[in-house]
Design brief:
90% of the residues lie in helices and 0% in strands. The protein contains 3 helices and no strands.
Length: 94
C-alpha cells in the first residue's frame, strides 16, 4: 500500500474512532455517578490511543517516499497495536 492510501485509511479510522468517543461521551453524561468514573477512564484511554494514532499518521504524511518504504512495516505494526488497544477499550462498554 502506498503512503497516500495508507494515510487516507488512517484518517478514515480516526474519524470512526472520534465518532465512537463521542458516543461513549454521551453515554458517560447519562451515566450514574458510580459508572461515570468508569466511562471517563475509558474515554481517557481511547483519547490517548487516538492521539497516538494521529501522531503516527502525521509521521507517515511527513515521510519522503524513500523513508516511507523503510518505515512502513514499523508503522503498520504500531497502528495495529494502537487499533487493538482502542478496540479493547471500546468493547468494555459495548
Amino acid at each position: 500500500m502506498d503512503r497516500d492510501a495508507y494515510v487516507e485509511k488512517m484518517k478514515a479510522k480516526l474519524d470512526e474512532w472520534n465518532a465512537d468517543i463521542d458516543k461513549l461521551q454521551a453515554q458517560a453524561k447519562a451515566a450514574e455517578a458510580e459508572n461515570k468514573a468508569k466511562y471517563e477512564e475509558q474515554l481517557e484511554e481511547m483519547r490517548k490511543q487516538r492521539d497516538e494514532a494521529q501522531v503516527k499518521m502525521k509521521e507517515a504524511q511527513a515521510a519522503s517516499d524513500a523513508a516511507w518504504d523503510d518505515m512502513r512495516k514499523g508503522m503498520e505494526n504500531a497502528w495495529e497495536n494502537i487499533s487493538n488497544s482502542f478496540q479493547k477499550a471500546w468493547n468494555r462498554f459495548q
